[in-house]
Design brief:
Elements: H1 7-17, H2 25-38, H3 45-53, H4 63-71, H5 82-131, H6 145-156, H7 164-178, H8 193-199, H9 212-226, H10 236-248, H11 259-274, H12 289-303, H13 305-313, H14 319-327, H15 336-348, H16 352-365, H17 368-373, H18 377-386, H19 392-406
């Protein structure tokens, strides 16, 4: 793959050269500068990070998707290796589906059919008993049918395959969360394009609709099976959601219909950097979530003692507001489009977790006046948990300023 024939970039170059392409002159220049770096045989990662730190232009639909793959380490810096790397990862993911998910789906289907048949048989027995006036036996009470069947099915789950009881519980936990993921958006509840295509010529009774939420659940289930030491923890769904959303919107011929495997591996790589915060046994170690909250609290003390002292005196424990910020990379504090812009800066930063502290610090600092004026514990908690001071742009500007002013590892980005 030579410089002039990079198919990953040529798609975007055609896009921006189309007469109907719309972008400001400034955005167009930034797109061209980023594409120029992406065309090189070896990516100048620091230069690409610097160009993307202040936001990746939305107008070029595949640009962010490609850059995030590089920042997360999914695509190597040598561009000639991209095609093989993608092919290998996608092949591996297909195998993971066969190894873990396909068996689960088959077992769940059998379980559903068994429940249906057993319920029908049970109700038939009740009807026969009632007709014979055998009356009030507990087993013939219609009100107890569902409860007794649940007990029966619970005890029989392991008969489907060894470990099914664990998988069934795991899947149930994941689905409960993914169904609620970004419920304010239509996207995650919609049927996927792949599902629509595969259902197109099927009979109504054969149609199996799969939504984007279902895809999130499958990725998280496979991740949990591959990482038993981490398993699945509530909140991981919020971390995979922005990655999948961006990749699903990529219509590049080399990435279309491949959003699931690509998002899975990018999510796994990101989790590799932050997973210690999700492992309960590490909570009280120097790599767990408590250490990370302490690090942020110490940074606040160093940068703004007055605010730190006020929160300490009122008993506002950092856990009350920073736990969610740090574990979920601020995904729950903003609308998805704002999270995506924030992640342009976070993912392109060479020291992601350190910079996350400065983003959190900026959120606190933008509330500084209100914090110092408040004399009410509940008010302090509410303002920090809701973080209503300033817009995202203000937070990003303040975080960059604080990082340059106070980080020992600061460099111009």
């Amino acid at each position: 793959m030579n410089t002039e024939e990079n198919p990953f970039v040529s798609h975007m170059e055609k896009q921006i050269s189309d007469p109907n392409f719309r972008a400001s002159q400034r955005a167009l220049e930034r797109i061209k500068n980023i594409l120029q770096l992406l065309k090189a045989p070896k990516i100048d990662t620091p230069a690409l990070e610097a160009l993307c730190f202040n936001g990746i232009p939305d107008e070029c639909s595949s640009l962010r998707s490609l850059c995030w793959k590089i920042f997360l380490g999914y695509l190597p810096s040598t561009t000639s290796r991209w095609e093989k790397s993608l092919a290998d990862h996608r092949k591996n993911y297909a195998q993971y589906i066969d190894d873990f998910y396909t068996r689960l789906v088959a077992a769940l289907k059998i379980q559903t059919e068994k429940r249906k048949i057993e319920k029908e048989n049970w109700l038939a027995a009740i009807k026969a008993a009632e007709e014979n006036k055998e009356g009030d036996n507990k087993s013939t009470n219609k009100n107890n049918v569902n409860a007794e069947l649940e007990i029966l099915h619970f005890s029989k789950r392991e008969e489907l395959y060894p470990g099914f009881m664990y998988d069934d519980d795991l899947w149930d936990d994941i689905v409960k969360d993914t169904k609620r993921t970004r419920s304010e958006m239509d996207f995650y509840q919609r049927e996927t394009e792949h599902s629509r295509e595969s259902n197109k010529d099927k009979k109504p009774e054969e149609v199996v609709e799969e939504t984007h939420n279902d895809v999130l659940a499958r990725m998280l289930f496979i991740y949990a099976k591959l990482n038993p030491g981490v398993r699945y923890v509530q909140g991981m769904n919020e971390i995979v959601a922005p990655i999948y959303y961006i990749f699903a919107a990529d219509k590049s011929p080399l990435f279309i219909n491949q959003s699931e495997p690509d998002a899975f591996f990018c999510f796994s790589l990101l989790m590799g950097e932050i997973q210690d915060a999700f492992i309960k046994n590490l909570d009280k170690t120097n790599v767990g979530i408590q250490a990370r909250m302490l690090s942020l609290n110490n940074l606040l003390k160093e940068v703004d003692f007055a605010v730190w002292d006020k929160l300490e005196k009122f008993g506002v424990n950092p856990q009350f507001y920073t736990l969610r910020w740090l574990m979920l990379l601020l995904t729950q504090e903003f609308e998805l489009m704002d999270v995506i812009r924030l992640w342009d800066s976070l993912l392109s930063h060479p020291k992601k977790l350190e910079y996350l502290n400065y983003l959190c610090l900026a959120m606190i600092e933008l509330l500084r006046d209100r914090i110092l004026e408040s004399d009410d514990f509940a008010d302090l908690i509410e303002m920090l948990q809701k973080q209503s001071a300033g817009d995202l742009d203000s937070i990003l500007v303040e975080a960059a300023r604080l990082y340059q002013a106070h980080s020992k590892s600061a460099k111009k980005v």
